[in-house]
Task: inverse folding
């Protein structure tokens, strides 16, 4: 099961799992400011103006032992926005826990930057050994035009030669365009240590007031995805489904609570 998890589409096992909206768009989120995607490009935090709390559960391939639960908190504070996230994957005999603190801020009218410190811990079956690692990640977000954004993100730019336990490194970049107030489209490329280049695309359509439809594609394992979201007052519910050409469907569900009135 451990190897099944590590080879799953779109996964760097040491990063907290993305939310259901991003899963529904094929993971194409590095340029799209939103609650969950801000933990995949911390520069996006600068665009979040309300205190928010979210929880997400991912049921990978309908196998409970591969489930991941995630909780996050975002707090705007003056010029900067702070974020905290906790994620746990696995079951009693094998668990991977990850916690992180993040900060994002606008550097200018058209540019923002962010950074995140990550701590992860693993417990392995059949042994008392536990491993703990610390690393960091960060990103940039550029507003090229009013409706076009470009995002760049890196994870773990630390040589494994100085680590006892190696961690994968990754780099991604993508662009998104808001064609009108109802339709958003994005495309992203990314590479992770030991894997091939991955291309992902996604679209989001406001089909009705407070109701969103999403779809996406990821070149790794020819993975198609779709999802939807509904916002009612201070609460937003999102559902996402991602396919795998051999292993089946992964479903995700997210709930986000806005802890103050949105501006």
Result:
């Amino acid at each position: 099961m451990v190897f099944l998890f590590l080879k799953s589409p779109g996964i760097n096992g040491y990063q907290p799992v993305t939310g259901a909206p991003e899963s529904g768009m094929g993971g194409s989120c590095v340029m799209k400011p939103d609650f969950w995607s801000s933990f995949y490009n911390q520069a996006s935090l600068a665009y979040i103006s309300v205190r928010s709390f979210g929880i997400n559960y991912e049921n990978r391939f309908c196998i409970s032992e591969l489930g991941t639960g995630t909780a996050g908190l975002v707090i705007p504070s003056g010029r900067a926005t702070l974020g905290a996230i906790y994620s746990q994957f696995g079951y009693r005999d094998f668990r991977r826990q990850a916690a992180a603190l993040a900060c994002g801020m606008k550097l200018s009218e058209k540019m923002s930057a962010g950074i995140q410190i990550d701590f992860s811990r693993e417990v392995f079956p059949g042994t008392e050994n536990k491993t703990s690692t610390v690393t960091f990640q960060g990103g940039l977000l550029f507003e090229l035009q009013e409706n076009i954004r470009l995002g760049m993100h890196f994870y773990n730019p630390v040589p494994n030669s100085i680590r006892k336990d190696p961690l994968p490194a990754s780099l991604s970049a993508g662009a998104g365009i808001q064609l009108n107030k109802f339709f958003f489209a994005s495309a992203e490329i990314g590479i992770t240590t030991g894997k091939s280049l991955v291309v992902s695309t996604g679209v989001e359509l406001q089909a009705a007031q407070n109701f969103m439809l999403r779809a996406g594609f990821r070149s790794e394992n020819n993975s198609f995805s779709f999802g939807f979201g509904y916002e009612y007052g201070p609460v937003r519910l999102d559902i996402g489904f991602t396919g795998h050409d051999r292993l089946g469907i992964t479903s995700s569900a997210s709930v986000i609570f806005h802890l103050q009135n949105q501006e």
